[in-house]
Amino acid sequence: MTRILAVVSQKGGVGKTTTAINVAAALAGRGVKTLLVDMDPQGSVRFGVGLQGPAVGPGIGDYLTGAKELKDIVRGTALPFLRVLLAGAVADTGDHAAYQSLVASSTRLGELLARARDRGYLVVVDTPPGLGPVVHRVLAVADRVIVPLQCEPLALQTTSQMLKGIRTAVSEHPALKLEGIVLTMFEEQSALSRRIADYVRRQLPKDLVFDVMIPRTAATVEAFAAGQPVVLRTPDDPAARAYGELAALLGKRMVR
Amino acid sequence: MTRILAVVSQKGGVGKTTTAINVAAALAGRGVKTLLVDMDPQGSVRFGVGLQGPAVGPGIGDYLTGAKELKDIVRGTALPFLRVLLAGAVADTGDHAAYQSLVASSTRLGELLARARDRGYLVVVDTPPGLGPVVHRVLAVADRVIVPLQCEPLALQTTSQMLKGIRTAVSEHPALKLEGIVLTMFEEQSALSRRIADYVRRQLPKDLVFDVMIPRTAATVEAFAAGQPVVLRTPDDPAARAYGELAALLGKRMVR
Ligand SMILES: Nc1ncnc2c1ncn2[C@@H]1O[C@H](COP(=O)(O)OP(=O)(O)OP(=O)(O)O)[C@@H](O)[C@H]1O
Ligand SMILES: Nc1ncnc2c1ncn2[C@@H]1O[C@H](COP(=O)(O)OP(=O)(O)OP(=O)(O)O)[C@@H](O)[C@H]1O
Ligand SMILES: [Mg+2]
Ligand SMILES: [Mg+2]
Fold first, then answer.
1. Strand, coil or helix: what is A124?
2. CA-to-CA distance for A167 and A214, rounded, in angstroms?
């Protein structure tokens, strides 16, 4: 059962959180029991699903220390089939270094995700930017990985490092498979954006780049302000439709 | 002599590298002897200053291990007063975890930046996203820090964690001072972008947010593709002019 999907990129701000939230919400919208896991100590997922508020409450950090069990940290959302695990207190304290060593040293992350999988969840994991200890740990327990690639020159230039990092992780965990690269913030009206998308498709094997591209839309940005995934808030928005298509594709490949 | 400026944000993709490159280039353009230091293992600075190419050559990683001296890793650029220290081989291997522990364990970073300062350089340091060991190390040796804040809801929502992280660093290193927050990728024609800029100015002390805002412009994105800072490539572009203004302000405050 391939059921744990990690969203990874060493480049920051390319749409990892936006992709994780909207793929998870779109899968849940199709009736797939989905668990969205926020492994980024920034804790951005909570804002995208409207769970912000003063008290962050227990999260993954508390599970890794053994203080809490899975049932204490799973949170419901407006969608019946979407549950969320938040990063926990680290998102408030901001002590990333302590969080990183906790994740690197604890064996409980594998147990946590395997337990969720055994309960029939399809698990979507958001990760911090970079290829540090947290990302390595997540790749060690994931089944599949997708890499958002922003259609801007700088994101393209750092892609080879990204793919090298993924290939190393795949060689260390033969069960892991790179599902593909998804082009994000694509701007049809920008010649540069089109050039980058063409370049990526020419340079990489065809099955490595998803056909569906996520366009840059104002509705996607506004959805975060409203605390709702764009697939729910404005389902007719081109980015929402593209995420729906991507989720349908991933659902078919992962839910057997 | 306050001469070491760090550009820091835990949020990814907010314009740290773009800000570090263009502030450094604009300072050098004004005749200030400037050293741009890339502490991000992604190694994005090299693309912005046209130093990409197959062989990355020695960099900071090599200095920290003791294999190279400052003179072996300083590189010239098209600008007479701008020199650059690249991240080094890590940008090729992508082994971020090893790089992080090297930076965290070595005392040579402080020596490196102090030596550059003593040679009369104003040092501008680009950092990786997050508040991990590399950022902590840089904040421990910097004099000033600026925080780029992208005018989008998600970047705003994670600001309080950012400021908390900076305040902790300042409490640990009394010599460090937060120069200010610079709003980036501002879009005059977007009501949401304007709302965010207004909100930030209302919520934070007036002297903490620079008056100058960096607009989102196509020229800034294209400059990266061309391997040149936008302040050099299209000096009349609104973002180039804004970076020029920011550099003039920082130069006045830091070069005594
Ligand atoms: N399709 C899109 N259209 C418009 N804006 C988008 C789109 N996708 C993401 N964004 C915006 O771009 C910014 C970065 O996106 P996001 O935070 O999801 O990236 P990330 O890779 O998770 O960042 P980090 O590296 O900090 O974790 C956010 O402000 C988000 O609202
Ligand atoms: N003023 C601007 N106008 C338009 N695009 C911009 C502007 N500033 C930055 N960008 C683009 O936004 C993207 C992110 O910028 P940049 O890489 O400098 O951010 P960063 O914070 O250094 O990212 P990371 O977290 O990966 O280090 C890049 O593609 C860059 O070209
Ligand atoms: Mg994110
Ligand atoms: Mg950067």
1. strand
2. 24
What would the mean pLDDT of A19-48 be, rounded to a whole number?
Answer: 96
Longest dimension (CA), chain B: 52
The pLDDT value given to residue A1: 62
Q: How many CA atoms lie within 13 A of B62 on its CB side?
A: 18
Is there a contact between A92 and B131 if contact means CB atoms under 8 Å apart?
no
Does residue A76's CB lie within 6 angstroms of at least one atom of ligand 1? Answer: no
- DSSP one-letter code for A186: B
Give the separation between CA B60 and CA B69, rounded to whole angstroms. 9
For residue A162, list chain B residues with Cβ-Cβ distance below 8 A. Answer: 94
Amino acid letter for position B44? S
CB neighbours (10 Å) of residue A53? 8
Tokens of B31: 């005749």
Q: What is the mean pLDDT of chain B?
A: 92
For residue A164, which residues of chain B lie inside 8 Å, CB to CB? 92-94
| Distance separating alpha carbons of residues A63 and A112, to the nearest angstrom | 8
Average pLDDT over residues A65-70: 90
The secondary element (H helix, E strand) that includes residue B199 is helix B191-203
Q: Which of B10, B13, B153 sits opposite A224 (nearest CB)?
A: B153
The helices-and-strands tally (H runs, E runs) of chain B is 14, 7
Q: Say how far apart CA B124 and CA B62 lie, in whole Å.
A: 19
Residue contacts between A and B (CB atoms, under 8 Å): 139
φ/ψ region of A148 (left if φ > 0, alpha if ψ in -120 to 50, else beta) reads beta
**Residue B160: pLDDT band with limits 50, 70, 90:** confident
Rounded to 5 degrees, what are φ and ψ at A124?
-115, 125
- On the 0-12 / 13-18 / 19+ scale of CB atoms within 10 A, A192 is middle
Measured CA to CA, the distance from residue A124 to residue A122 in angstroms comes to 7
